[in-house]
Amino acid sequence: MVDRFHEELKKLKEEVIQMGELAKGMLYDSIEALKEQDVELAERVISRKKRLADMDAEIEEKSLQLIALYHPMAKDMRTLGCILKVITYLNRIGRYGKDIANIAKELSDKPHIAKLVEIPYMAELVCKMIDDALKAFETEDISLIKDFSERDDSLDALRWSIFRECITYMMEDQKNITRCAYYIMIARYLERCGDHACKIAEKIHFMVTGERIEIK
Amino acid sequence: MKEYAIETKDLKIYYGKKEVIKGINLRIPKNTIFAIMGPSGCGKSTLLRSFNRLLELNKDAKIEGEVLIFGKNIYGEDVDPISIRREVGMVFQYPNPFPHLTVYDNIAIGLKLNNLVKSKEEMDKRVRWALEKASLWDEVKDRLYEYPASLSGGQKQRLVIARALALKPKILLMDEPTANIDPVGTKNIEKLLFELKKDYTIVLVTHEPAQAARTSDFVGFLYLGKLIEVGPTKYIFEKPKNELTEKYLTGSLV
């Protein structure tokens, strides 16, 4: 027998996963729009911002209702605590997608420098981390997030490598400055998204085990 | 060695041949609220009744092991159960003031029967003190000579608590004291418990985990006569160590 609370909680978890897919999709598509210089796709990413904010508010509201009505305890409470934190991180990730989509519009007129340096590769790594975090949230399989610390380190390294490479292009030709400055910003956004994925992983670990960890 | 308000050593309780409490070692610190929670029939009330020898009124019950109240084994040979019950008061699930006695006499009777008071003035003082302690004085000071039937459920229960307090016990045992009280009455009693723990040690039996969470400092989870987990309330309700506790709190214990 599944009781009403656990049925509601299951539905809410599904909504969190949907919100996660939305946020990740915004990030992924913003990079596609940047690569393909597809202004229309960039616009579509930007327009998804409202749905993302609505989901954030809806899930928060439903979580608070479940707490008020059912007084959950132990793992049930940890799950709701996790949800309330995770939706904030997901919202941020989606909004970085929107920011990158805005840059994609700006940079759609001229060809990219050095094929966008390592930005697409970095984005791929970040999206995979978000994917694994969402899967861990869904299945409670925390082995999916055990190497997040190392994966976050590679994102940091990539960010600085992009930074250094962009500096050399800027020194070569000052016409590259605007474009490369944007690349550096995007690398920074992606690195922040990786940090958010790590925070999500920490919350999932606490939800599943009751034990707090810090992913550095 | 630290002295505890209540300490049990390998406590086992049988009803006839059936073992209902299966070897419990428990320590309850002074001036705390200790909640015993668990599903119906797990032995909560039985355990509670062994703390003031109320259990032996049941002829089938047999007790092994020790119960120490402030370091003294209450099942020792030279111990008078009546004096134990004075030291360790009990409040039950149904508010049970004496219906044929006025509010005043409900408090006074225990003092009279035990010859604890010498004069009318002293009696007035003790009655008022007990009612004040139970946060009931302001509500009944003009109705002292009315019968308890005119009180609300929550007021009746506080009257019973005042009656127990009048004998100046050191420990109060409460067996689901708010099970039959409405939310306002429950809130008042829970507020009162918090006040009382400054002077008393309170052991509270509840089948409602939320109440244990709201009121207690420590919780013991009792299941099928065994003490599964004991710990500070905030840890037990957020991240219990034992899987059975986890299941009980999330409603998935079969």
User: How large is the radius of gyration of chain A?
Assistant: 19 Å
Straight-line N-to-C gap of chain A:
41 Å
Which percent bin holds the helix content of chain A?
A: over 70%
Mean pLDDT of chain A: 96
Classified by CATH, the class of the domain at 6-92 and 169-249 in chain B is: Alpha Beta
**DSSP helical segment count of chain B:** 10
Description:
The complex is a heterodimer of chains A (216) and B (254). The N and C termini of chain A lie far apart (41 Å). The model of chain A has no long low-confidence stretch (mean pLDDT 96). Chain A has one domain: Phosphate transport system protein phou homolog 2, domain 2 (Methane Monooxygenase Hydroxylase, Chain G, domain 1). Chain A has seven helices and no strands. Chain A is mostly helical and 216 residues long. Chain B is α/β, with parallel strands linked by helices. Chain B has a domain at 6-92 and 169-249: Rossmann fold (3-Layer(aba) Sandwich), CATH 3.40.50. In chain B, the strands form two sheets. In chain B, strands 6-7-8-3-9-10 form a six-stranded mixed β-sheet. A four-stranded antiparallel β-sheet of chain B has the order 2-1-4-5, with no helix packed on it. In chain B, a hairpin with a 2-residue loop joins strand 1 and strand 2 (18-28). Chain B is globular and about 55 Å long. The A-B interface holds A 3, 5-6, 71-78, 210-211 and B 209-210, 213, 237-240, 245-246, 249-252.
